[in-house]
From TrEMBL:
Its cofactor is Mg(2+). PANTHER family: ATP-DEPENDENT (S)-NAD(P)H-HYDRATE DEHYDRATASE, ATP-DEPENDENT (S)-NAD(P)H-HYDRATE DEHYDRATASE FAMILY MEMBER. Residues 5-348 form the YjeF C-terminal domain. Residues 135-160 are annotated as: Disordered. Keywords: ATP-binding, Lyase, NAD, NADP, Nucleotide-binding. InterPro entries: Carbohydrate_kinase_pred_CS, CARKD, Ribokinase-like. (6S)-NADPHX binds at residues 40, 135, 223, 289. This is ADP-dependent (S)-NAD(P)H-hydrate dehydratase. Residues 146-160 have a biased composition (Polar residues). The keyword 4Fe-4S does not apply. GO terms for biological process: metabolite repair; nicotinamide nucleotide metabolic process. It comes from Shewanella polaris.
Length: 353
């Protein structure tokens, strides 16, 4: 186990040759965001650009893409066909409307259609790295009231697993992961992408859950609760032995694992690093989406997943430390963290000189 040091981080920053163009610095396809989590799509895409990726495309539903385009001109958007768009084009009579509405009653109106995978097919072949999951809603919690006679212990990881219900973009995600399995080498899997993978791993005999393999160079970015779902281990145990469980997951899933939180653990199962930067300012909704985008952005520049994860986690924490110095650790917004990434990179570069 090694602490991440500035000396080591200095050696990781990718070079920026003068003889270059945007594609020299990689192409990220970010599949992120959903009707309630548009901000996650913005934060992750912008973070990939902020660390130097040459080209970032956001693939999501039209409502997400429209919101992002209204906020920034920097992200190329790929609006994906939604289930409701297909549904309305298929509806021709009132009777059909009623039967279809019944069928889609519990569906997110902006849920992406499985046909969108065909839309993405060529792009998947051309892209150097794909990030999936930030704000892409696949799961909900089963909030059904329970009978008082049937108490359940919610801290039991198995109960947490059972309480996760598939919804929203689930069908699209399953087809997408099958396509990624055969066409993508570098994948960053975040948030509900991890929750789905956990459900798949924990329920190998469930035929309603199509299985997929992670690409050879994958990064999983769980927070402790997500890792607890992946390993079916209580979150308290995870927090007591963070390095142990992160390493176990990396070995089990053949991926780099970034176990987020104070002293983030980064491991490929053989080498393990502990982050030395960051503070409670980062405990704010959306900062994890920024981290996912940073890892994707560095991977796109040709970095190996372990190194890209170490560099991203360190800079993300350093950006949080710079914020804290200027404005305390109370007030950071995840969107402001994006503005501190250049300052963190500059600090590392200055130390290099
Ligand atoms: N602006 C946007 O668009 C934003 C979009 N976002 C997107 O929203 C999606 C869902 O994100 P989310 O925040 O709703 O769910 P999630 O983080 O799984 O928390 C659920 C529960 O897990 C637990 N838990 C969490 N962290 C923990 C920890 N470190 N250690 C231990 N436990 C921890 C905690 O449970 P508790 O401990 O309270 O029982 C918590 O209540 C996701 O796609 C994301 O990308 C967000 O990034 C926000 C900004
Ligand atoms: N107390 C803390 N100290 C250092 N880093 C923290 C702290 N709390 C959260 N972070 C960092 O902030 C990010 C939070 O990510 P995550 O839990 O996925 O939140 P979200 O889903 O809202 O983006 C992670 O990179 C995590 O390491």
């Amino acid at each position: 186990m090694d602490m991440l040091t500035l000396d080591y981080i200095k050696t990781l920053l990718p070079t920026r040759p003068d003889e270059s163009h945007k594609m020299t610095f990689g192409n990220v396809l970010n599949i992120a965001g959903s009707i309630n989590y548009r901000g996650a799509a913005y934060l992750s895409s912008m973070a990939a650009l902020r660390v130097g990726a040459g080209y970032v495309s956001l693939a999501s539903s039209s409502c997400v893409c429209n919101s992002i385009t209204a906020q920034t001109p920097n992200i190329v958007t790929i609006p994906l066909v939604t289930q409701t768009a297909l549904m309305s084009s298929a509806i021709t009579s009132t009777a059909k409307i009623i039967s279809k509405l019944d069928q889609y009653e519990h569906t997110d109106p902006e849920a992406i259609s499985v046909d969108a995978v065909k839309q993405l097919w060529v792009k998947l072949q051309q892209t150097s790295v794909v990030s999936v999951g930030s704000g892409l809603s696949l799961m909900g919690t089963d909030d059904q009231p329970r009978s008082p006679n049937e108490p359940q212990n919610d801290s039991d990881p198995q109960v947490q697993q059972d309480n996760l219900q598939l919804k929203g973009n689930f069908d699209f995600f399953c087809h997408l992961m099958k396509a990624i399995e055969t066409s993508v080498t570098k994948l960053i899997l975040d948030a509900d992408g991890i929750n789905f993978y956990a459900k798949m791993i924990q329920s190998p005999n469930d035929e309603t859950l199509p299985s997929f393999k992670l690409p050879t160079q994958s990064v999983l970015t769980p927070h402790p609760k997500e890792l607890s779902r992946l390993l079916a281990v209580d979150v308290t145990d995870i927090q007591q032995q963070r390095e142990h469980y992160a390493t176990l997951a990396a070995t089990k899933f053949g991926a780099v694992v970034v176990l987020k939180g104070h002293k983030t653990v980064i491991t490929d199962g053989q080498q393990t690093f502990i982050n030395s930067t960051g503070n409670s300012a980062l405990a704010k909704a959306g900062t994890g989406d920024v981290l996912t985008g940073m890892i994707a952005g560095f991977c796109a520049q040709g970095m190996a997943p372990l190194e890209a994860a170490c560099l991203s986690v360190y800079l993300h924490g350093l950006a949080g430390d710079l914020v804290s110095k200027q404005q305390s650790c109370y007030s950071l917004l995840a969107s402001e963290l994006l503005d501190y990434i250049p300052k963190a990179i500059q600090l590392v570069l200055q130390k290099t000189a």
